[in-house]
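Cross-check.
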Amino acid sequence: MDQIPPEAFLAAFPASIRSIGDRLRALVLATIPDAVERVRPGWHLIGYDAPAPMGSRGRRSAYFAYIAPELEHIHLGFEHGWLMTDPDGLLEGAGTTRQVRWLTFHPGDEPDQVHVAPLLHEARRVALLPREARFEAAMMRDAAG
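Predicted model, tokenized:
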């Protein structure tokens, strides 16, 4: 199956959403240059995988972020967002989903590299944790309450 180019995927959305999507794509790839970007049509999003560091055992990459456009807004999401450190309290989704967290941008919003880049690095770090480490972090969070 041929891959859908991200530009073609975003072309189905209003220009204001497409513009934010283009800026988010550039921000993700500038922040995490080795990220692998691909459209995941079944999920209706552009997903990002981070290659595991050289010498790592186990999986070769980890899904860490996504861009999910909708007609009225667009999300930059983080697969393991509930385990991420979010010192500015920017992430949405707590109480809505168990694991995923996101930022929402509306027409006219400008993605801010100062706030978004640290979240992308944190999302990559958490996604690349060994499964046991994520499980342990989850148990500690649940115990804390």
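The helical segments are 6-10, 15-31, 113-127, 131-144. Residues 6-144 form a domain with the Aspartate Aminotransferase, domain 1 fold (CATH 3.90.1150). Passed to J.P. for a second look.
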